[in-house]
Design a protein that fits this description.
single chain, 15 strands, EC 6.3.3.1
Length: 380
């Protein structure tokens, strides 16, 4: 047998190694009610099983059901939540980042799961995080079907945590949205963002740090503190996008909505280019909207070049609908009826080799179309 070191004269337990299973159980108890509120009639069983189950019988009514899946996290926005000790909002960011990525292909979400890694389980904090996820899932009618909280002592600091999630949805093959449906003359309709959403926070945090601004600082342009503005949750587009699909299409025809682009990491042009076919260009007019104050403040505070801001932040556009001109008014009406500002951003044209502004193509590994972002943003 190997020699027993002096410091091991006392028994070593899982708890003394830094893992508190009782705290984990307490966190589950605190979050159970919120998670249960997300359950739909299709869910089989309840909270606490090894695997979440959902009845997929409805898929028998599909001719060719395609399953859509996506996974994501919240990024360094978590650092803002940790600094302010406010943990019940980033769950909505997670849901928005994950579920709205599958909605862009026209998929209806079936379920979501989450995963939290932390240095030490603080039951109330973990419950706050999961309650945020559950509240957002309930708002879009998607069950939070499973999750995991993992304690990583020695790998993460006691107050550190990170969160990730995944979702699965389904779409009928002949109703799938995407580049294959986009045509010259299609109209681009922007759906406004609620703020920074959950992208670009490494840039934002560096700007704030360099400027010496405290998160508690009241900013007149925001009408609240800097920290409150930076923690503003991501807008959820799931219901409004599904409403567009259901309202504007019919059983006999897919409808005028051709593609959706979720504006996340990489900014407007890089994400819009992902849903365009080769040979087409989406012309985006910067003058079509007013960049919200949070973006202007960050850009000016850090002297961030416009090109870098455009390639990092959403600048006020959270989702773009690419729609046949016959459906543009319907998209605008549905968005605004849901309380989401919307406006015409530009249109799709054939690529004639001429650009009016900054041309963006070949992003995110997609060999497709291009985005020509031109003009000047409105001055305040």
């Amino acid at each position: 047998m190997p020699p027993v070191p002096d410091q091991a004269s006392q028994p070593i337990t899982y708890a003394s190694a830094g893992v508190d299973t009782a705290a984990g159980d307490r966190a589950v108890e605190l979050m159970k009610e919120a998670v249960a509120a997300t359950m739909t009639p299709a869910v089989v069983g309840g909270v606490g099983g090894f695997a979440g189950l959902v009845d997929a019988s409805a898929l028998r009514d599909y001719t060719r059901p395609l399953l859509a899946t996506s996974t994501d996290g919240v990024g360094t926005k978590v650092a803002i939540a940790q600094a302010l000790d406010i943990h019940d909002t980033i769950g909505q960011d997670l849901v928005g980042m994950v579920v709205d990525d599958i909605v862009v292909v026209g998929a209806r979400p079936l379920l979501m799961t989450d995963y939290i890694a932390c240095g030490r389980v603080v039951p109330e904090r973990i419950a706050d995080i999961v309650r945020g996820v559950a509240t957002a899932c309930a708002a879009i009618g998607t069950p939070l079907l499973g999750g995991e909280t993992a304690e990583h002592p020695g790998l993460m600091g006691p107050e550190d945590y990170d969160i990730a999630g995944a979702a699965t949805g389904v779409v009928e093959a002949d109703r799938m949205l995407g580049a294959q449906r986009v045509r010259p003359g299609d109209v681009l309709v922007a759906l406004g963002s609620s703020g920074l959403h959950s992208n670009g926070y490494s840039l934002v945090r560096r700007v704030v740090e360099a400027a010496g601004w405290e998160l508690e600082r009241h900013v007149e342009e925001f009408g609240r503190t800097l920290g409150e503005e930076l923690l503003e949750p991501t807008c959820l587009y799931t219901r409004v996008c599904l409403a567009m699909l259901e309202t504007l299409s019919s059983p006999a025809a897919p409808g005028p909505l051709h593609a959706l682009s979720h504006i996340t990491g990489g900014g407007l042009a890089a994400n819009l280019a992902r849903v365009l076919p080769a040979g087409l260009v989406a012309g985006v007019d910067r003058a079509s909207w007013q960049v919200p104050p949070v973006f202007s403040t960050i850009r000016e505070l850090g002297q961030v070049p416009w090109e870098d801001a455009e390639a990092t932040l959403n600048l006020g556009v959270g989702m773009v609908a690419v729609v046949d001109p016959s459906g543009a008014d319907g998209v605008l009406r549905i968005a605004e009826g849901s309380g989401i500002p919307a406006w015409v951003l530009g249109e799709v044209r054939e690529d004639d080799g001429r650009a009016r502004g900054r041309l963006v193509a070949g992003t995110k590994g997609v060999d497709g179309g291009a985005v020509d972002i031109h003009g000047d943003y409105r001055s305040e």
